[in-house]
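pls ignore typos typing on phone
1-deoxynojirimycin + seq
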Amino acid sequence: IEKRVDDLLSRMTLEEKILQLNQYTMGRNNNVNNIGEEVKKVPAEIGSLIYYDTNPTLRNNVQKKAMEESRLGIPIIFGYDAIHGFRTVYPISLGQACSWNPELVEKACAVTAQEARMSGVDWTFSPMIDVARDPRWGRVAEGYGEDPYTNGVFAAASVRGYQGDDMSAEDRIAACLKHYIGYGASEAGRDYVYTEISRQTLWDTYLLPYEMGVKAGAATLMSSFNDIPGSANHYTMTEILKERWGHDGFIVSDWGAIEQLKNQGLAANKKEAAVYAFNAGLEMDMMSHAYDRHMKELVEEGKITMAQVDESVRRVLRVKFRLGLFERPYTPVTSEKERFFRPQSMDIAAQLAAESMVLLKNENQILPLTDKKKIAVVGPMAKNGWDLLGSWCGHGKDTDVVMLYNGMATEFVGKAELRYALGCRTQADNRKGFEEALEAARWSDVVVLCLGEMMTWSGENASRSSIALPQIQEELAKELKKVGKPIVLVLVNGRPLELNRLEPISDAILEIWQPGVNGALPMAGILSGRINPSGKLAMTFPYSNGQIPIYYNRRKSGRGHQGFYKDITSDPLYPFGHGLSYTEFKYGVVTLSASKVKRGEKLSAEVTVTNTGKRDGLETVHWFISDPYCSITRPVKELKYFEKQSIKAGETKIFRFDIDLERDLGFVDGNGKRFLEAGEYYIQVKDQKVKIELTD
Ligand code: NOJ
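k done
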């Protein structure tokens, strides 16, 4: 590949090189009569396009122009946001994280890759691995929650799923870790705003998932919008990513992010913005038109060098070669039926949805609904397609979605009678539907109340000042409660919610997130008891908005016994890791291979888990480390490893954590230097805490 890149570079003009460093958009207008028009707009030498279509023929026509009408015939790389599925839409990433099942997430990403590549897309702008601790920020839906290690594990799983061992395969695509870096720290949960991040926090919180994703082989990264500045930061893009981690792919800017350096007050004009971004190490300009317009002048003026241009083009071409685009520039034309909703893809969608769902509450074992003959299925999410898809749902359509009511109807056929009522819309003042809902409740043995958020309330540019559901939905719940029948609350949403008013009303609460096309039957399967729930929260549910930000791995307080809120509890409603099962898991005593270790020695910990209930189940063990005293203070505890296993009723399984002293007991300083201090550490599993002594 390097020889072929050298050869091309030696033959390319400056103009041709510059175009390789730009990404334009195309698509959405692919009616056969317009294909010609669409193709005409694209320069034959363009490096990349965001491809909004699913039609291989349109892609092939554009690619043909690049291959045949440009002097050197360099193929275009087509990118697209396939975040939690391409057409077969999976649960949102935050839900996926609650499955604690990276192998399953890898499989879902492999399906996304297959559908995307067969539709003319070579590259997805995914995974998003921004650690996020403010649920008001709409983009918490797109990532894997509040914990750095969890984001890192799912980053690596996604990269493996998208790219496989060889991204030139016809069912694989290039991954893109985003948004590099610290975008999740958006102040007050608002999008695009300033992020205040110390070097220490940059390293111990935000960089870890990227390091893990880069190690897994991610071909590209996307620079972030936030003013750290994400898109003009030499330290993060060049020193850390390229020099320390040895990443040899390229970085694409987020949409218009180079131009936005002007709005942020860094650059006086677009040309200056181009200098800042390019000199910091940002190779490709997504839709700022800063590089295409100004780079030539900048080279001539000596503000950027030819060597830098060559190095950047090399990185872009390298990824194109690795994708096999020079050998196979065109996408074989296939029907949608051949590409989408393959039975196996739908099975993965159902399994991932099932494992992502979190049973938050189950008072008096109201669930599963084994003896209920009349079920009222009520609420704005019950017969709803779009909102189950969530934000960034690729090419998903509402008509692809199995609706919750339909899932219930299939699941309970012959077992219970169902009655549906809307009750109210997601957000409205109109209470006209309440009476019908109350009537259904009076008739029923149990009410399954399906509430939640619209798909547009999370994702990009979708912050909310309050994470409570709209008042009308809470009112509907209150009125239903008065009827006196048990209430099973099913929640469809893209972020943790404020549930302190709904919680006392509900006998059971099942969080199903935005579960995608095939989540309805798994949801109903959990309610019926066919499926034993196993999801656990990857993000804390605050008691109320006022607690935000609240997350498990906070630093310790100077006065642990004081400093609480005077008006509300200081505890979250549902902590990180919370999630109930229909069976009981009994943990044995955590044992260590040694309680005293020296640097360089090996150490492992084990715990047995026995399923003492009557049902088979899946259990995730979370292994935390804490370091009570350290020259740089550390969080109360940090997740270092997790494992999920299926455990049959009556069976005992061993969970084991092989501890790498440097990696798991050590810590990074504000410049990424890893250190390990002698002293005591604790390993924590559930409520057990076991001491380890480390000596020099
Ligand atoms: C802006 C979003 O921030 C980013 O996540 C996305 O990949 C790009 N637009 C391209 O659609």
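Residues 294 and 601 are 55 Å apart (CA to CA). DSSP finds 21 helices and 25 strands in the chain. more later
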